[in-house]
Amino acid sequence: MIVLGVESSCDETGLALYDTEQGLLAHALHSQVEMHAEYGGVVPELASRDHIRRVLPLTENVLKTANKTLQDIDAIAYTQGPGLSGALLVGTSFAESLAFSLQVPTINVHHLEGHLLAPLLEANPPAFPFVALLVSGGHSQLMRVDGIGEYELLGDTLDDAAGEAFDKTAKLLGLGYPGGPALSKLAQSGKARFKLPRPLLNSGDLNFSFSGLKTAVLTLVNQHQPLDATTTADIAWEFQEAVTEILTLKCMTALRETGLDNLVVSGGVGANSKLREKLNAATKRKLCKVSYPRLEFCTDNGAMIAFAGAMRLKAMHGNGNRNYGFSVRPR
Ligand code: KG4
Ligand code: ZN
């Protein structure tokens, strides 16, 4: 079965075709990052309007790349939430109306399930069960995953998500949007000079808290006015060090407590090379395996939605929704 995947929850329009027999056939993405950069963050109304402009050309693009026509589509999967309501409505209404016209079923996908399963799109995918670290702009969660739809939440953030902490800290340091990649790049030229706290590092549970870290950065920034380039890079270095140390330690605790030896990392922060370096070393020491999606599938994309939809459809023996009504679930 061939599933068209539609992602429009935030500032990326992602389309993809996934074949349950042959795997990923094609994917295409339009990122609105440049459009929102001058505002320092995503402007929801602009995001919605841009999704409208992109969704049809991108659909044509993936069909052409895969050498398929609309008639080859067996089902349509789309992100129903969480995300920006206007942005979600574009993908949702597009997916449901196209499915209605083709008389094929739809599968509404939870955006986080898309991220969670993204590493399974790679060659030699990790086998169930595994521990998943999901670190994106909106979430920081540790989960035990026993199969499609079998997710147990082990730990969550009590305040900011990891990506959110990167973005807010980058803003404090005067870096552009999106902050995560910019901060990470700057940290490469920094060194160990400051000491930031490691909130909840030894809390005995698997929860995270990153907002105190951001406040500690603000204090440093205020103490070192005017900020010079070296100080900015050194603060970035220590911030990245603190976040990646916490994430790594909690992942290792989760593996130990569940007795599993398989770790899967996903979400935008999963693209962070320092995090990958630390996780690779820690899992190697404990003889565990760690898997990541390819870099372009760490952040939002249509491939993960097509894949999660295809897995759901398989589990439902091909019976998706056929009522063609729709609503979004922003939260
Ligand atoms: O998964 P994603 O595309 O969107 C959400 O569903 O939230 O993640 C975006 C987040 C942003 O906060 C961005 O700053 C962060 O992931 N991010 C990074 C890196 N690349 C993206 N954070 C740290 N290092 C990176 N290399
Ligand atoms: Zn996302």
Automatic annotation (TrEMBL):
Q: Where in the cell is it found?
A: Cytoplasm
GO molecular-function terms, A-Z: iron ion binding; peptidase activity; tRNA N(6)-L-threonylcarbamoyladenine synthase activity
Name assigned to this protein = tRNA N6-adenosine threonylcarbamoyltransferase
Protein's UniProt keywords contain Acyltransferase: yes
Question: Mind telling me which CDD domains this protein's record contains?
Answer: ASKHA_NBD_TsaD_bac (cd24133)
* Reactions that this protein is recorded to catalyse: L-threonylcarbamoyladenylate + adenosine(37) in tRNA = N(6)-L-threonylcarbamoyladenosine(37) in tRNA + AMP + H(+)
Reported EC number(s) for this entry are 2.3.1.234
Cofactor, free-text remark: Binds 1 Fe(2+) ion per subunit.
InterPro entries associated with the record: ATPase_NBD, Gcp-like_dom, KAE1/TsaD, TsaD
- Known function: Required for the formation of a threonylcarbamoyl group on adenosine at position 37 (t(6)A37) in tRNAs that read codons beginning with adenine. Is involved in the transfer of the threonylcarbamoyl moiety of threonylcarbamoyl-AMP (TC-AMP) to the N6 group of A37, together with TsaE and TsaB. TsaD likely plays a direct catalytic role in this reaction.
Q: Look up keyword Cytoplasm and say if it applies.
A: yes
Residues that bind substrate: L134, V135, S136, G137, G138, D167, G180, N272
Where along this sequence does the record place binding of Fe cation? H111, H115, D300
